[in-house]
Design goal:
This protein is an alpha+beta fold and 449 residues long. Among the domains are: 188 residues, 3-Layer(aba) Sandwich (Rossmann fold), CATH 3.40.50; 70 residues, no CATH class. The chain has 13 helices and 18 strands. The strands form 4 sheets. A 7-stranded mixed β-sheet has the order 3-2-1-4-6-5-18, sandwiched between helices. The two termini are 16 Å apart.
């Protein structure tokens, strides 16, 4: 609470399990102790409607909130549920509904009760898929994540063991709900929790199968001793790598018209890990991809760059073209979409541009035409072949007028931006011409001290 920028209005995500009830009680006590009471709380419960008891459990949370004098909102996940991928669908529904509540009440942030136990399970699941040092997910979940570019999600309990939370609730005489799905081995998280040999009964809140991480690139640990130190170290290394990549971009990178990146040859002498990270993120941005390139692909690109010879390769939908003066990166022209937008409609084109048709007529959006004269006018200081490829991957809008709004999208941070990558995302957003990101509601200088 001391790091929170105040005044603030917070939406607390409370399911009724021990983690979220502990979150509610902790914040209620802290706010009550504030001399100026400049923090407002709203509790949100998402009823996934996957169990008969879920509706009553949501009402029970409301009774606790009434006792504490805190407003409570329930949102139900309506509609048909998918027969497969239920965990991912439940997670998406949960965050969508929490965002709607936060928008309605004008919250500065959403706060969840993810614990050190959740952190350990998340890292273990990611490591089971890919234990490579290039796997950013091994640093665990971030303590703060910007969701949809609009609202920050905070996780203040990431270094707190669930046992400590339950001990506190027991001392206060408070109970909690145990979700039976937390023992269902159909879910990967349950299997991983049991593999980690957690004590019986220490299951995570809410949907056991619902991933607790918002962004695949987040990371952490669960133990209090050396494990916690290892988590902190991993998170610090992750943030440092991202910050250094931002500094490298500031010194050596320019982006023309949002589609063509020019990286100075001198910058290729940077630390290999930093350069790899920058190129991986940059490829996602220019390729319109929500996730970074696979480690083996990044290795292939690095080998090409280190070879020192002129030429080009394609990786992650992006062409890496090395010339004498610079390395050029741009989206390849293959598989570019053609879409129609009716009046008032908005859509994401090629993962790279959000286009909103504010006119009264329909428009068609597709790739540009690689005309040499147009290309050289748009990119006068670029080799002609590169300029023509760049024009060909820009969005061309038939019937375009002043009522068509086109904004570049900064993948892979458009949906989830972990605090680890805030500086790098901000640097790339400025270079590509994106909107400025919402500042986190915590004091970063105090956090880093």
């Amino acid at each position: 609470m001391t790091l929170l920028v105040r005044p603030a209005r917070l939406v607390l995500a409370v399911s009724g399990g021990s983690d979220s009830v502990g979150l509610l009680m902790t914040f209620a006590d802290h706010v009550k102790a504030l001399p100026d009471r400049d923090v407002d709380l709203v509790v949100a419960t998402i009823d996934h409607a996957l169990r008969p008891a879920s509706a009553q459990e949501a009402l029970d949370v409301g009774l606790l909130c009434a006792e504490l004098g805190i407003p409570h909102v329930i949102r139900r996940w309506e509609g048909d549920k998918p027969k497969s991928g239920i965990s991912a669908a439940a997670r998406e529904a949960r965050y969508r509904l929490l965002m709607e509540i936060a928008d309605t009440v004008g919250a500065d942030a959403i706060v969840t009760g993810h614990t050190a136990d959740d952190q350990a399970e998340t890292i273990a699941m990611r490591a089971s898929r890919n234990a490579s040092p290039d796997n950013r997910g091994l640093s665990g979940m971030a303590e703060a994540v910007l969701v949809d570019g609009r609202r920050w999600l905070l996780r203040p309990f990431l270094s707190t063991p669930r046992a400590d939370i339950r001990r506190m609730l027991t001392e206060k005489g408070r109970g909690w709900i145990d979700d039976p799905s937390n023992e269902d081995r159909h879910y990967e998280r349950v299997r991983m929790r049991q593999a980690l040999a957690l004590p019986a009964g220490l299951a995570a809140d809410g949907m056991a199968g619902a991933e607790t991480d918002c962004d695949r690139g987040e990371g952490g640990n669960r133990d209090n001793g050396a494990g916690e130190t290892g988590a902190v170290d991993a998170m610090a290394r992750r943030a440092s790598l991202s910050d250094k990549a931002a500094e490298l971009a500031e010194r050596h990178l320019t982006i023309l018209h949002g589609v063509l990146a020019r990286f100075d040859i001198a910058g290729l002498n940077a630390e290999p890990d930093v350069r790899r990270h920058l190129f991986s993120v940059l490829a996602a941005v220019l390729g319109g991809q929500p996730h970074l390139m696979a480690a083996r692909t990044v290795t292939r690109v690095s080998a090409f760059v280190d070879g020192g010879l002129a030429g080009r390769i394609t990786a992650g939908r992006v062409i890496f073209d090395r010339r004498r003066d610079a390395l050029y990166l741009q989206r390849e022209s293959r598989d570019l979409p053609m879409i129609s937008l009716e009046a008032g409609e908005a859509a994401l084109w090629d993962g790279r541009y959000r286009i909103h048709n504010l006119s009264s007529a329909s428009v068609t959006v597709g790739p540009g035409v690689a005309e040499r004269a147009v290309a050289m006018a748009e990119f006068p200081d670029v080799p002609p072949a590169i300029a023509m490829r760049a024009v060909a991957v820009m969005p061309s809008i038939e019937g375009k007028n002043e009522h068509i709004r086109v904004r570049p999208v900064l993948q892979p941070f458009d949906r989830f931006l972990p605090l680890f990558d805030l500086k790098l995302a901000g640097t790339l957003a400025e270079l590509i011409g994106c909107d400025v990101f919402v500042a986190p509601p915590i004091k970063l200088s105090a956090r880093k001290s």
